């Protein structure tokens, strides 16, 4: 579907949630994307599997500058700056994974069946998904889904995407992911955190994010 490629190159506001069978929400993500600047900024919240504690991760990427803050809502922690190219795990996870999905999904779509006005459903071939053009990561997003349902507006942009779990899914992919896009094409503000609130990642810590 050309709508995915069209949407992936346009500024957008995202809101996503992950739900268990039965409807329990286990995680949410929200933020904005500016593909022309290779920039995104978003926040994700999820409960840890072993407790009721909500983990909050904030992520801002502006070209090769990646800022990450990990904590809980009442104590968000300190921003850490790193090179996105040297931290592929950070550059393709959390909110960045949601944004990258739209850039990668198009080539992986096997079919699209129209189910109503602006409504489609079909299947994915994850092996054919493209690498993302929205960030510097060379890994590309992993798409652990086999099916999708999409809503496309009259301008040809994807405004909603529902990703049910694969039949052999594990972990987070056992949930259904629902993504809503709004304010497509409107200006967004993405800025680095104040310098006084940022610390530089240590060289050894890059290994935690897939670097060396």
Strand order of the largest sheet: 7-8-9-10-11-1-2-3-4-5-6-12
Please bin the fraction of helical residues: 10-25%
* Radius of gyration over C-alpha positions, nearest whole angstrom: 17 Å
Tally the helices: what do you get? Answer: 3
Quote the average pLDDT: 84
**Class by alpha and beta content:** mainly beta
What is the makeup of the main sheet?
Answer: 12 strands, mixed
> In percent terms, what proportion of residues is strand?
35-45%
N- to C-terminal distance:
37 Å
Q: Helix and strand string, N-terminal first?
A: HEEEEEEHHEEEEEE
Shape: globular
User: What is the total tally of β strands?
Assistant: 12
Low-confidence stretches are 132-141
What does this entry look like structurally?
- α1 runs antiparallel to α3 (95-108).
- A twelve-stranded mixed beta sheet has the order 7-8-9-10-11-1-2-3-4-5-6-12, with helices on one face.
- It is globular.
- The chain has 212 residues and is mainly β.
- The protein has three helices and twelve strands.
- The protein has helices at 2-8, 88-91, 95-108, and strands at residues 12-19, 25-34, 39-47, 54-62, 65-71, 79-83, 109-116, 119-124, 147-152, 158-163, 176-182, 198-200.
- It starts with a helix and ends in a 12-residue tail after the last strand.
- It is 12% helix and 40% strand.
- Residues 132-141 have low confidence and may be disordered.
């Amino acid at each position: 579907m050309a709508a995915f490629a069209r949407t992936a190159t346009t500024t957008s506001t995202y809101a996503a949630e992950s739900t268990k069978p039965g409807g329990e929400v286990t995680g949410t993500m929200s933020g904005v994307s500016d593909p022309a600047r290779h920039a995104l900024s978003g926040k994700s919240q999820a409960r840890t599997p072993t407790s009721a504690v909500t983990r909050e991760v904030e992520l801002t990427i502006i070209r090769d500058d990646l800022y990450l803050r990990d904590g809980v809502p009442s104590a968000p922690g300190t921003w850490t700056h790193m090179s996105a190219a040297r931290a592929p795990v950070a550059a393709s996870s959390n909110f960045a994974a949601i944004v990258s999905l739209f850039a990668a999904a198009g080539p992986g779509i096997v079919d699209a069946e129209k189910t109503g006005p602006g409504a489609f459903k079909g299947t994915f071939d994850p092996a054919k998904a493209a690498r993302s053009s929205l960030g510097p990561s060379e890994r590309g997003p992993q798409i652990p889904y086999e099916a999708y349902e999409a809503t496309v507006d009259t301008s040809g942009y994807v405004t909603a995407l529902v990703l049910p779990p694969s039949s052999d899914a594990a972990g987070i992919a056992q949930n259904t992911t629902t993504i809503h896009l709004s304010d497509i094409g409107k200006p967004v503000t993405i800025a680095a955190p104040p310098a006084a609130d940022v610390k530089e990642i240590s060289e050894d810590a890059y290994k935690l994010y897939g670097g060396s």
